[in-house]
Amino acid sequence: MNELELIERLTAGLPRNASTRVGCGDDCAVLDFGGMDSWILFKTDAVVSGVHFDSVAAPEAVGHKALGRCLSDIAAMGGWPTHALVTIGLPVPFDVEWVQRVYRGMQAMAAEYDVAIVGGETTASPGAMFLSLAVMGTVPRDRCLLRSGARPGDAILVTGDLGGSLVSGRHLTFQPRLAEARWLATHFEVHAMIDLSDGLAGDLRQVLKASGVGAELLASAIPISAAARKAGGGVGGGERMGAQGKTALERALTDGEDFELLFTMPASDVVRLTDTWRGQFGGLKVGCIGRIIEGCGLHLRGVGFNRSLDLDGYVHFQGT
Amino acid sequence: MNELELIERLTAGLPRNASTRVGCGDDCAVLDFGGMDSWILFKTDAVVSGVHFDSVAAPEAVGHKALGRCLSDIAAMGGWPTHALVTIGLPVPFDVEWVQRVYRGMQAMAAEYDVAIVGGETTASPGAMFLSLAVMGTVPRDRCLLRSGARPGDAILVTGDLGGSLVSGRHLTFQPRLAEARWLATHFEVHAMIDLSDGLAGDLRQVLKASGVGAELLASAIPISAAARKAGGGVGGGERMGAQGKTALERALTDGEDFELLFTMPASDVVRLTDTWRGQFGGLKVGCIGRIIEGCGLHLRGVGFNRSLDLDGYVHFQGT
User: Fold this and answer.
1) Which residues pair with A268 in a beta bridge?
2) In chain B, which residues have their Cβ closer than 8 Å to the Cβ of A38?
3) pLDDT band at A233 (very low <50, low <70, confident <90, very high)
4) Exposed, middle or buried by CB within 10 Å (0-12, 13-18, 19+), for B224?
5) Rounded CA gap, A162 and A181, in Å?
6) How far is residue B42 from each of residues A292, B76, B303, measured CA to CA in Å?
C-alpha cells in the first residue's frame, strides 16, 4: 500500500462540521468562523530524522525546513501564515544545544513572515527525532486558491527550476513562495494552485483529480534545475542513467521537495503575467509548461513522442 | 535538564505578533482575529509508542487518548473544540488495520464533540509510531479561563478522583471535561483553570507561578482514586510504600494523566457551586481541596503537619 492509498483509506468518512469549507484533500484545510473577511487556513506537517533530514544537516536548516514546508502549503492557497505550534519528539538523552539551534532556524523563518510561534509540546521519542508543526493562516474569502479550479484551456505554469532538491540540499534552504502566491492571487485570475512537494507529475495529478480534467505537458518547457541536470545526465526524455537512475527530465518531473508553485490560469493572461512578473521576486522564473485538457490523464509531449505518465506520477518511459 | 527547563529555554524569545493574546505558557494559545465574538484557541500535542501507550493498548484507545489530550486543554480554557489535524508517523512496514483502528478511535471522539478532522499528514518514522494532533477551538471573549487569574482567598477545586491513571488504564479512556468547564465558565466567576495532565501538585504550581500566588492544600480533602489507593497503599501522608513507592496521597498529588479540571474561584461561591453541580455530568464529583494565599509556594496541611511541596511538584516527605 502506498501513501496515497493509505491516506484515502484513513480519510474516508472523517467527521466534518458546518464551519469546514475544505477538509482533507487540499494543501490546507479552509475554515469559516463567520464575522471575518477572511477564511482561516489550518495545516500540519512533520519532519523525521532519517527520513526528511540526516545527521549532517545543520540543525537551523532542519527547523527552517520543518516550518517552511507548512508555509509553502499556506502559500499554495494564496494565504498568509499567522501562528505556529511546534511539537518536538526527542530521543533521550538529547543534545540541548542542537535542539536550541533547530528552534533558532524556525524562529528566523517565523520572524521573516511575521508568524508567531505560540506554543507546542515536548515529548520523548525512542528511535527518531521528529518535529511536527501546525500552522494557521488567513486568506481573503474571494481569493482562496484550491486544487479543484483548473479548467480545460487553462495554461499550466510553474515557478523556479525543478528537480534535484534532495541532491543539492535545496530542500533544507528553500523559501516558501508566499509573496509570489499572494501577488498572483491579487493580480490574476488563478484557477488552481498547489505547491510542489511530491514532484511535478504527482502534484499536478492531484490538481487534475480534484478538478476532473487532464493535462498535456510540453517536455521542452519543463524548467530543469542545474542540480537535476548534473545528477540526471542528459535532458532528453529517452536518455537513461542505468537501472536505478533517472534522466534530468525525469528528475524535474518526479524528484519532489521543490516547494515551487504550480498553478493554472486562462491562457490569454500568460503574456501579461510573464511581463508583469519580470524583475520581481529576486529574479525567480515563472513559465508556462503545458495546458489543461478535457478528459483525464497526464500526457508528456515532445518532438516525436506523446507519452502518458502513470498514476503515481512516476514516469515509465518503457511504455512508449 | 528536565522538561520544564527545556521548554523555558526553547520558548525564550519566540516571535509573537499583534493577534496573539496568549502565546506559550497556558493550556492553549489564544488568538484574536478580529471581527469575531470569540477568540480562537490553538493547541498541539503528541503521543508516542513506548512513552504514552504500549503495545497492548487497543488502537482505538490510542486514538481516543491522542485527541482527548488536546480536547482536555481546550476544556481548560473554557472553550469548545472545532477542528483537528492528525499527523501520523509510522515505522515501515506497518499494520494498516491497526492504523485504521487508531483513526476510528479519534473519529468516534471527534464526532461526539462535533470536531471536524480536516486533514493531516502521514510520514515514515523509524523506531517509534507517533500521533501528533493539532486542534483549534473557540472561546467567548469574556469567558476565556487562563492560568494566571488565581487570587489570594480563592478556593481551589478539582473534579473527579486523582492518581493511578496509568495503573488503571484510565489514561486511555478518560473523557475531556468540556461540558463541565463550559458550564463553570458560564455560571461562575472562575478565576483560573488548568487541566491535570502532569499531576495535581505540578499543574497547580503552574497556576501559582502564572498568577504570582501561593497555595495551601488540605491533605484530607484531596480526592484519591480507588486505583491510587490500591497501588499506593495507605492514604496517610506518612505511610511509605518502599524506596520507589508512593503513598496513595502522593499518587493523587503527582501521578499525572488524570485529565480532570483544577480551578480557582471566590470561596464565597463554593457552596452554591457544589449545590448546583450535583446531579449533573453523570455523577462526576467536584470538591474544594484548598485555598490560594499571598506569597509563593505550595503547602500541604494535615492533622499535625504542614509541609512544603518542592519545585517539581514531587513530594519529599522526609523534610518535615
Assistant:
1) none
2) 33
3) low
4) buried
5) 17
6) 39, 12, 43
**Dihedral Cα A151, A152, A157, A163, nearest 10 deg:** 100
Q: Give me the mean pLDDT over the A250-271 stretch.
A: 96
Which stretches of chain B score pLDDT less than 70? 233-244, 310-320
Please name which of A232, A218, A198 lies closest in space to residue A2, comparing C-alpha atoms: A198
Best residue in A10, A95, A115, A138 for a mutation probing chain B (most B CBs within 10 Å): A10
Residues found in chain A: 320
d(CA B27, CA A165): 38
Q: How much is the CA Rg of chain B, to the nearest whole Å? A: 20
> Which residues of chain A lie closer than 8 angstroms to B113, CB-CB?
none
pLDDT digit string (tens) for B288-302? 999 999 998 999 998
User: What's the confidence (pLDDT) of residue A268?
Assistant: 98
Cross-chain CB nearest to A107 (options B6, B14, B86) = B14
Say what the pLDDT of residue A237 is.
43
Distance CA A310, CA A315 (A): 6
Instruction: Answer whether A248's CB lies under 8 Å from A232's CB.
Output: yes
Cα B317–B298–B183 angle (5° rounding)? Answer: 125
Task: Calculate helix-pair angle for B96-112, A3-11, nearest 10 degrees.
Answer: 30
**CA B138/CA B154 separation, integer angstroms:** 26
Contact between chains at B14 and A117 (C-beta distance less than 8 A):
yes
Q: What is the DSSP string of A110-159?
A: HHHTT-EEEEEEEEE-SS--EEEEEEEEEEEGGG---GGG--TTEEEEEE
Q: Report the distance separating Cα A201 and Cα B64, nearest Å.
A: 37
What is the per-residue pLDDT across B156-177, written as a single tens digit (0 to 9) for each? 999 999 999 999 999 999 999 9
Strand partners, B41: B30, B137
Report pLDDT digits (tens) over A89-141: 999 888 999 999 999 999 999 999 999 999 989 999 988 899 999 999 999 99
Rounded to a whole number, what is the distance in Å from the CA of B224 to chain A's nearest CA? Answer: 27
| Mean pLDDT for chain A overall | 90
Q: Which three cell numbers stand for residue A297?
A: 490523464
Tell how strand B130-140 and strand B80-90 pair up: antiparallel
Residue A133, beta-bridge partner list: A45, A86
Q: Which residues contact B149 (CB under 8 A, 6 or more apart)?
A: B190, B191, B192, B211, B264
Q: What is the pLDDT of residues A157-191, one digit of tens each?
A: 999 999 999 999 999 999 999 999 999 999 999 99
